[in-house]
């Protein structure tokens, strides 16, 4: 469903992503791993329309996304859980979730989407009148994921959802992502937590210095001696 | 009510009174009432400023000049065509809505930020002041209409009809705006855009259209403020500047983008000013708003 071909993205003159091609098929769970500064966030932001593309194409179901304004991307079924969560801190939890279903197609399903998010994250139902900025990091991550789910996406983009969270919260986040995937949503997961990302992904890409240096099934990638050493901490 | 020499804030109730040490209960009541009405005018003038500052990060000083342009247009339509001043809003409000959109288009085109907006809109204010002076001269103008001098008597207090109307309009518009921002999807989108624009955009908020709507609304509010300035005060082009300080204080104390906070702050400041004038002398009034602003900023610096 998502086809990225020869993508090049730059911050000003500094090129952050070179000639990256990747694809996500319907109901796929694909992960992109790599060290800090490899261009993972730039890549996912470019797909989400937050970052202009210098060259190459991003296609969704065959349609080029370059001509689609950022605020219409979500109508095509893409939703983003950005790096650092980027909630609306001075708004309540429920208001944050409601922005997720702002686009008319998702807005019609507001009630049932809210129920689904509150069923997945019961703590958010208790905190729904609380300001998002006052929540703990783990709860904020739940709001960020819930907000994206409110958009009823067919393709969910997740940028390091485990960053800065306590280990047991990280396990919970990965379980939730696997559950979303099991419900039939395609997922593109950018992660530094390679072990857990490989555990739930069907396919993986390794990004280093803005280029894809390896791709394949996680089980195959984990065989590669260099990847084992660099990302899995094994000799 | 006010003479050209006394500041709009006053309502100038403090007649040269005999008993300076202890003002009568009636004088205090009358002062509080004047505070309520003047506070309504502050809130009407501040509403557009608070919205564009809080939600669009544009500090629009031209809001004050627009309000005076609205006041003069009301005066002109009422005196030339014998049109009821309140009815002039039917023409002026939609016109100002379009003007507000035009201004915001310019701000967006030139990527204006908070600081540059202050400079650019100061320039616009000076231009509008000159325009007003060119058309209507620097002479004082007073809109006379059958109901501008009507007072209702409640107990021992005199309640000016136009002041009451100003407060009613301020209460209606601030409450309506507050409710709209709090509960409607558009209102939530506006608040979300102010906090993280690109993320709001990623979830489908058309920020450009929303910004134009907010800017249009703000200018429309200035038109309403203009009507009540014309009904309650004597007009002179230079008076544009006399409102800026105190309305800024009200907008900041009420919190940027918070319409209800603005109304409360406006009435609080105006009532404090009126009481100060009743107890001491009119000259002390301007000190009140800024003392309040400084004290509140010291206590709650996160504003």
What would you say this structure looks like, in words?
- The complex is a heterodimer of chains A (235) and B (303).
- With 235 residues, chain A is an alpha/beta fold.
- Chain A has two domains: 109 residues, P-loop containing nucleotide triphosphate hydrolases (Rossmann fold, 3-Layer(aba) Sandwich); 67 residues, no CATH class.
- Helices cover 36% and strands 26% of the residues of chain A.
- Chain A contains ten helices and ten strands.
- A six-stranded mixed β-sheet of chain A has the order 6-7-8-3-9-10, sandwiched between helices. In chain A, strands 2-1-4-5 form a four-stranded antiparallel β-sheet, with helices on one face.
- In chain A, strand 9 and strand 10 form a beta hairpin.
- The termini of chain A are far apart.
- The model of chain A has no long low-confidence stretch (mean pLDDT 93).
- With 303 residues, chain B is an all-alpha fold.
- Chain B has one domain: ABC transporter involved in vitamin B12 uptake, BtuC (Orthogonal Bundle), CATH 1.10.3470.
- Chain B has eleven helices and two strands.
- In chain B, strands 1-2 form a two-stranded antiparallel sheet.
- Chain B is globular and about 60 Å long.
Topology (elements, then pairings):
The complex is a heterodimer of chains A (235) and B (303).
Chain A: E1 2-11, E2 14-24, E3 29-33, H1 40-47, E4 55-60, E5 63-64, E6 78-81, H2 93-100, H3 104-107, H4 110-120, H5 122-126, H6 137-150, E7 155-159, H7 167-182, E8 186-191, H8 194-200, E9 203-208, E10 211-216, H9 218-221, H10 225-231
Parallel strand pairs in A: 3-8, 3-9, 6-7, 7-8
Antiparallel strand pairs in A: 1-2, 1-4, 4-5, 9-10
Helix pairs in contact in A: 2-6, 4-6
Chain B: H1 25-56, H2 62-81, H3 89-109, H4 114-136, E1 151-154, E2 157-160, H5 161-183, H6 185-195, H7 197-202, H8 207-232, H9 244-253, H10 259-279, H11 285-299
Antiparallel strand pairs in B: 1-2
């Amino acid at each position: 469903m998502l086809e990225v071909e020869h993508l090049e993205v730059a911050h000003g003159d500094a090129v952050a992503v070179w000639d990256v091609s990747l694809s996500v098929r319907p109901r796929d769970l694909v992960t992109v791993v790599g060290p800090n500064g490899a261009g993972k966030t730039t890549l996912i932001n470019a797909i989400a329309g937050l970052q202009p593309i210098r060259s190459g194409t991003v296609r969704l179901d065959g349609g080029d996304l370059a001509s689609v304004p950022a605020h219409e991307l979500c109508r095509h079924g893409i939703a983003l859980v950005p790096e650092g969560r980027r909630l609306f801190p001075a708004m309540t939890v429920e208001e944050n979730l409601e922005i997720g279903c702002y686009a008319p197609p998702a807005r019609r399903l507001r009630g049932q989407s809210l129920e689904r998010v509150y069923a997945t994250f019961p703590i958010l139902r208790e905190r729904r009148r609380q300001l998002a900025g006052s929540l703990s990091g783990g709860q904020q991550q739940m709001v960020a994921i819930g907000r994206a789910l409110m958009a009823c996406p067919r393709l969910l983009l997740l940028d390091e959802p485990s960053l800065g969270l306590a280990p047991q919260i990280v396990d919970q986040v990965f379980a939730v992502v696997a559950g979303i995937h099991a419900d039939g949503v395609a997922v593109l997961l950018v992660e530094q937590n390679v072990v857990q990302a490989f555990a739930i992904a069907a396919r993986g890409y390794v990004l280093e210095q803005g280029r894809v240096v390896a791709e394949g099934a996680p089980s195959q990638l984990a065989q590669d001696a260099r990847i084992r050493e660099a990302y899995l901490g094994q000799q | 009510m006010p003479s050209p020499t006394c500041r709009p804030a006053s309502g100038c109730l403090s007649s040269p009174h005999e008993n300076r040490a202890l003002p009568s209960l009636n004088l205090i009541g009358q002062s509080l009432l004047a505070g309520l009405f003047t506070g309504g005018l502050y809130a009407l003038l501040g509403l557009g400023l608070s919205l564009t500052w809080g939600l669009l990060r544009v500090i629009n000083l031209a809001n004050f000049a627009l309000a005076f342009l609205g006041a003069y247009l009301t005066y002109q339509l009422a005196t030339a065509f014998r049109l009821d001043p309140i009815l002039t809003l039917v023409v002026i409000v939609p016109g100002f809505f379009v003007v507000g959109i035009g201004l915001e288009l310019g701000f967006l085109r030139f990527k204006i930020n908070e600081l540059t907006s202050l400079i650019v809109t100061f320039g616009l204010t000076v231009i509008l002041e000159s325009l007003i002076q060119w058309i209507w001269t620097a002479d004082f103008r007073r809109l006379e209409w059958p109901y501008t001098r009507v007072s209702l008597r409640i107990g021992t207090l005199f309640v000016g009809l136009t002041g009451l109307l100003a407060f009613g309009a301020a209460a209606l518009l601030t409450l309506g705006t507050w409710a709209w921002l709090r509960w409607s999807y558009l209102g939530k989108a506006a608040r979300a855009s102010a906090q993280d624009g690109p993320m709001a955009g990623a979830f489908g908020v058309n920020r450009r259209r929303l910004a134009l709507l907010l800017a249009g609304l703000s200018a429309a509010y200035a038109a309403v403020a203009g009507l009540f300035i014309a009904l309650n005060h004597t007009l002179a082009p230079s008076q544009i500047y006399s409102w800026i300080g105190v309305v800024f204080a009200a907008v900041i104390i009420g919190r940027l983008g918070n319409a209800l906070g603005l109304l409360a702050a406006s009435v609080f400041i105006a009532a404090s000013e009126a009481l100060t004038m009743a107890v001491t002398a009119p000259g002390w009034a301007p000190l009140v708003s800024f003392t309040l602003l400084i004290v509140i900023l010291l206590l709650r610096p996160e504003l």
